[in-house]
């Protein structure tokens, strides 16, 4: 498994400290990242589905019942289904943009980062979490494309490649400088 060394926003150390040229600090805090594979991402997604389903049932169901709407109305175009869909996409878009991870990803210690330097842009997040996720949901068989993560050398899915993002496992550590 390939490991990459990044410096996280919380530990902005200079290159001199990481390389050991700064004699004032014997220890340097850095973050070591490995690409997250298929299974850890799969389990994180299942946790996210439980979270989104719970949010919908705890918030939307009572709200619709309060207004006398049938919560159990079947159909793709029912108001409840539309509201569930909005909650689903808002959850993934907002959590990814503001925290770089959803609750499921937090549980498993993984997060989404830009393949470029810097924070995730709105364009990256919207494309990754809204456009591609919508296409995958609209055409159910396309969900099989998530399996691409298992076979890609950097553990990137199609949505990562097109959105210019990576999903990484984060491990904090200390490097002693000599």
Describe the structure.
By secondary structure, the chain is an alpha+beta fold. The protein is 49% helix and 17% strand. The protein has one domain (3-176). It starts with a strand and ends with a strand. A four-stranded antiparallel sheet has the order 1-2-4-3. The protein has helices at 15-19, 38-66, 79-99, 103-108, 122-138, 148-151, 158-163, and strands at residues 3-6, 27-35, 110-114, 165-176. Residues 36-163 form the RDD domain.
Q: What order do the helices and strands come in, and which of them pair?
A:
Elements (H helix, E strand, L loop, with lengths): L2 E4 L8 H5 L7 E9 L2 H29 L12 H21 L3 H6 L1 E5 L7 H17 L9 H4 L6 H6 L1 E12 L2
Antiparallel strand pairs: 1-2, 2-4, 3-4
Helix pairs in contact: 2-3, 3-5
Number of distinct beta strands? 4
Q: What is the domain tally? A: 1
Give, in order, the helices and strands. EHEHHHEHHHE
| H/I helix tally | 7
Helix content: 40-55%
Oligomeric state of the chains present here: single chain
* Shape field: globular
Distance between the termini: 28 Å
Give the low-pLDDT segments.
1-23
Using only C-alpha atoms, the radius of gyration works out to 20 Å
Biased composition (Polar residues): 15-24
Region (Disordered): 1-24
Subcellular location: Cell membrane
Keywords: Cell membrane, Membrane, Transmembrane, Transmembrane helix
Question: What are the defining features of this structure?
Answer:
7 helices; globular; disordered N terminus; transmembrane helix; RDD domain-containing protein; Pra-immunoreactive
């Amino acid at each position: 498994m390939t490991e990459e060394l990044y410096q996280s926003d919380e530990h902005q150390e200079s290159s001199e400290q990481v390389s050991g040229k700064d004699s004032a600090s014997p220890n340097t805090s850095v973050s070591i990242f490995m690409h997250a594979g298929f299974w850890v991402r799969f389990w994180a997604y299942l946790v996210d589905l439980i979270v989104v389903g719970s949010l919908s049932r705890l918030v939307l169901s009572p709200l619709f019942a309060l207004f006398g709407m049938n919560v159990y109305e079947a159909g793709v175009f029912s108001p409840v289904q539309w509201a569930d869909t909005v909650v689903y996409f808002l959850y993934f878009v907002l959590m990814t943009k503001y925290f770089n991870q959803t609750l499921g990803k937090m549980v498993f210690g993984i997060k989404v980062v830009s393949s470029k330097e810097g924070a995730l842009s709105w364009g990256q997040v919207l494309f990754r979490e809204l456009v591609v996720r919508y296409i995958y949901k609209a055409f159910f068989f396309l969900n099989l494309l998530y399996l691409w993560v298992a076979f890609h050398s950097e553990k990137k899915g199609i949505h990562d490649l097109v959105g210019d993002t990576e999903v990484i496992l984060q491990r904090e550590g200390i490097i002693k400088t000599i």
